[in-house]
Amino acid sequence: MSATAAQRFLQDAAVKSADLVHRGIILHGLESYDAAHLRGRARFKDWEAARQKCQEIKQEAINHLDRYLLQFEEKVTSRGGHVFWAANAEEACKYVVDLASRCGVRTVVKSKSMVTEEIYLSPALEKAGIKVWETDLGEFIVQLRNEPPYHIVTPAMHLNRRQISELFREKIGADIEGDDPSRLVTAARLWLRRAFFAAEMGISGANFLVADSGVIAISTNEGNGRLCTSVPRIHVAVTGIEKVIPRLEDLAVLWPVLATSGTGQPITTYSTLIGGPRRPGEPDGPEEFHVVLVDNGRSQLLADAEQREVLHCIRCGACLNICPVYRHIGGHTYGTTYPGPIGSVLTPHLSGIREFQHLSYASSLCGACTSVCPVKINLHHHLLYNRRNATTEGGTKFTERIGFRAWRYTMLHPRIYAFAGWLGRAALRVLYGVGLAGSILDPMRMWNRRRSPVPLPSESFRARWRKGLAAK
Amino acid sequence: MQQSENPSRDRILARIRAGLHTPAAESADTTSSGGAIFEPIRNPLDRFQQECVANLTECVLTADTTASALQLAKILQSLPEGEVFVQDDPSLRWLIDVVPSSRPIRWSSQGAPAETSQATVTLVEALIAQTGSILVTASCGGRGASVVAPCHIVFSTIAQLVPDLQTALRNAFREGKLARNSFACVISGSSRTADIEKILVQGAHGPRRLVIILQTGT
Amino acid sequence: MPRRVSLFVPCFVDQLLPEVAVDTVKVLRRVGCEVEFPEDQTCCGQPAFNTGYWNDARPCAENFLRVFQNAEVVVCPSGSCPTMVRMFYPELLSSSPLRADAIALGQRTYELSEFLVKVAGVTDVGASFPHTVTYHASCHGLRELQLRDEPVQLLRNVKGLKLMEMARFDECCGFGGTFATKFESISIAMGTSKAENVTATGAEFLTAIDSSCLLHIQGILGRSGAPARTIHLASILAQDEP
User: Fold this and answer.
1) Which CATH code, of 3.30.360.10, 3.40.50.10420, 3.50.50.60, 3.30.70.1140, is assigned to A43-299?
2) CB contacts < 8 A (A, C)
3) Min CA distance, B102 vs chain A (Å)?
């Protein structure tokens, strides 16, 4: 029987957490982010007020989701765009594949969209004989390596220039002397330019759907998103239903906050707004504009009033960047579309709690994620809610359930607790006395294997208190 | 889209409405100071120029249209041979006429810029001091005009400078810019990427150079 | 007039590190508090709560409320246990008739340094500890109780103590309760990074407000043969002039 997601996770985590080369690369990348992020926050007069405002915007949007989605749809369709509501991944993929087939599309250029990874859109297109080029440099790199993105904002963070240079030599025949990053970028630019100008369809995501203006907002730095949405004849934007915001003006705070949290920039280079196909009189632009609104479990999460705020996420990546677990195991270990704290919180809701509950447990609950989330999602508390739901719905281990029953009984009876503590310490002292610490017989083996053993005093505090501390 | 073509539409809407029947838990922390999020900008022109430096945008101040034409000539001279794409607007027609150049010119009224264009020249809708940005729409020569060529040159006047994103977006909404244009973009510098070892490389898929000619007089 | 303090001792401190609680009593008495220890206390319920077994945690929480119902103020040499009481009891007991009591108790339950600085108004407890010391900011105290630098304020006033700053002092050490064994490899990796940062300061001692962090980091320091030793904040503050 093949390993479960939890077993694979533990295996990969063991390998990655011991990989010091990997850790060095990640730490280097994240340290530069840390510095940039702090500088970015200092540009705000009141960063906390900005977070508060962003939370309020998303709270309003999500709690009136139907109203704002309908407003958005009405405006888009009135200007010649198409809006398709997809209940799940299959429906979304079918719509795009059918559209591409109908229009004789042979090549697609794609800019970054986590939702398209979530619904496995590229494999569906490739299966229909359509070639898909990822054009975001990081995504292009991992596509050539045939692996998933490592991080939602910086997909190739785990690779160094040597590796990328070798990859380019092998896959696109580019010979870059000295592995110079700017020449690597030029090589990618030249290769992908051919794709931009040959492709019949461009696929993008959307960072925000602006209800009062009927536009999608896309934040990028490279310009690939611009080319995908300007040159090919058809533009398809694939987005989760939760991306909607009420007003154009909301972007005045959301754009800087997204950029600061994602990369430390004041704003991304290209903050693009697209509301439809080219209008009569415009020199260029796609003839067709389609927005695919993907549900895929989001409406179910919406119905959970306790966890609805998880839908506020603007996919900035800040929680990944600060998470010490992420820093030590990296993005691929999670084995999910969305890694890091948001991924651990969200995945059970999108993909099932039984299979993915382990991610909610793979956290020390340090709360760093919550402290940086720009829309103030209480991320680590949601891990606790997921854990609670796992015990009632997901079927946690029987031995664990029984164990906590026994624990509860003990803790409700102080004398039994005191006796159990004394007995446990005494037994372990004997066991360790004969040298069996860390062995298979040691109940504390999972601690003692790689840490020096816990102390085993002969007297507990309460014993000492009773013996004479009280009197003083 | 017809109901029969998109049966999930109504189902999703129904699920959303049903889900929202239960109000969300009140967020515990409602400490909204209501205060300013960004420092007020006292000197927009200074701020705009500072941000351009940080963005690696070239910002050149000119006193009048003659000086602007001179700047354009200088920039065009610095570029390799090849076609230049220009937004078809009377002020730009005048500028191109005045500049001595044997370069082939393609006007936006002829269609999209060629892939091999060496530069594009456009107007802007606004300049934004807060982030050193330009706001362009499809009316500024189309979509490709600000991304296809390695060099994007824009002409602007000091009257177009607004202090911050909020003002620019409010104005754009009020003036119906997004109702009339299928595309708009706030551009803050040249195209760049840090996807390789977090090292910043300028000039990814979009222009490597963004040049803003800001005319302060007439 | 002496302040009456009810001591709340984390269950694993009671069983494995009693000297931390003994030192806590010493410090509280030295600043003029009358200390009592309700002997019926066992556990605040956090292990069950954190693992998702809220139905097992709830009776423990209710028991805790009963044990401390007459306490004027509750002090605990740990950040995570007061966090459980103050931040999570209201939620755990949201449908219980004891909810109001829980909220009230949470507002008078303090971590030791929090109590000393914010309630007793004391930053110098008359301690002496002539050694180099570095400080690790345990997560619950930092991010749930919103402690700023109360522990550091106290450390700065200890005679002879030289405080060394540590890189990433506020990054989680990797203990995390059952996380330490359920996800051993990640926990060890995080603890190793922390231990490396400790060693890089050259300090003789590492201190923190949570013994769980210290136990975990000491476990890794010990295995690697690194010289630094861990000591709880209470134990430093309890050190007299020789």
Assistant:
1) 3.40.50.10420
2) 182
3) 24
